[in-house]
């Protein structure tokens, strides 16, 4: 009887949908992964450096009754993305959801940027998104059940933010690529959208030289009376991944408490 119960659990896990969230060992990515795990998705945690954080997050998610695979991969390199998807194929054999959350950037005034700063930001934020989306879509097509892709953007894609040139331009490309992917993948029942957020107090913001000023300004000027939290962005992502958003295609949903309406 114990053997049969174990076999049933294995079969149940094999039929569960799988979500890959890039850069998900902490911050917004971890929040999204947690919400997906609570919905019953098996999870792929992708990280670039901190294995300890990734395994800590994975263990938390396993407590929710799902299977979790952690994969170290620099998504700016196509061969590393291919290796990551090979591991996903071996472990789960499917991908149903992709959240392009991993991002980086060099925070400098435009006249202080050099080629390495530009390449670093564009490779992670744009090439990584393209390669991950291509490989996820290939698997979603083969499965015949479709899927959904959501990418994270920011208000810097549409408006000027101090020292934000490389990231802002890369996020504008994220939103543009979202539209192109959406049109070409829609016939395969793969929905592609993006979520753009206002200032969020995460670890990534500690790299901003004007962090405190930025957060204070955002809080004071946001009509909703507070800055955006990771939970707010994750909720929008979950909506776009849900059946309720089945006819939303190629859109960027802004989650900023209304601050962008004032400028």
UniProtKB/TrEMBL annotation:
Keywords for this protein: Oxidoreductase
Pfam families tied to this protein: adh_short_C2 (PF13561)
Q: What Gene Ontology terms describe what this protein does at the molecular function level? A: enoyl-[acyl-carrier-protein] reductase (NADPH) activity
Cross-referenced InterPro entries = NAD(P)-bd_dom_sf (IPR036291), SDR_fam (IPR002347)
Record EC number:
1.3.1.104
Do you know which CDD domains this protein is assigned to?
Answer: ChcA_like_SDR_c
Please verify whether the record's keywords include Oxidoreductase. yes
Q: What class of enzyme is it?
A: oxidoreductase
Does the keyword field hold Zinc? no
Complex and partners? Homotetramer.
Question: Which family does the UniProt entry place this protein in?
Answer: Belongs to the short-chain dehydrogenases/reductases (SDR) family.
What the entry lists under PANTHER family is as follows: OXIDOREDUCTASE, SHORT-CHAIN DEHYDROGENASE/REDUCTASE FAMILY (AFU_ORTHOLOGUE AFUA_5G02870), SHORT-CHAIN DEHYDROGENASE_REDUCTASE FAMILY PROTEIN
Name this polypeptide is given: Enoyl-[acyl-carrier protein] reductase III
Upper taxonomic classification of the species? Bacteria, Bacillati, Bacillota, Bacilli, Bacillales
